[in-house]
Prior knowledge:
This protein has 189 residues and is of the alpha+beta class. Helices cover 39% and strands 21% of the residues.
Amino acid sequence: xxxxxxxxxxxxxxxxxxxxxxxxxxxxxxVDLPPEALPSVARRDLERAWYAAREAALAxxxxxxxxxxxxxxxxxxxxxxxxxxxxxxxxxxxxxxxGIANATGLSLCLRLLALIDLLAHAPWARSLFHLAxxxxxxxxxxxxxxxxxPLTREARFDEAGFQMRLSRFIxxxxxxxPQAAQRLSGAHS
Length: 189
């Protein structure tokens, strides 16, 4: 990840985040800790990041292509490239509102992306949010879980771990087995 211009972001717990860019607009982030070591964030900050991303999407703001390299203490690393138009827009909004050249801002940004990814493919979560043209409503426990659940090596949420954390915040929360899984079991009534 060579960059033509570079500056160092704030100290992250256990390291720094160095940011660089090239003339073509590619932003690179060298992060001296892995995604799973990024700190928890405040629920209200995650909600604000959602609304900043929504406003940027409605305004059709383009964000830069961004590449991240997360270094691990053992010398290995995880690379993450954000070239998708929507992800670029959302990351740009978080960068403009809180900055992502520090551990907290980067954690907030990645948690927002991980939450969007989870909501897109987890049918069990549909009862915990409502999307409408004029905005979105989230169950407070959903945002609380996303703000505090550790990220995986790939900067996503582990679905089972997320469900367990969510169950701590919602009394009686249970995930029902999908109908297809019941049919595939071979059990007959």
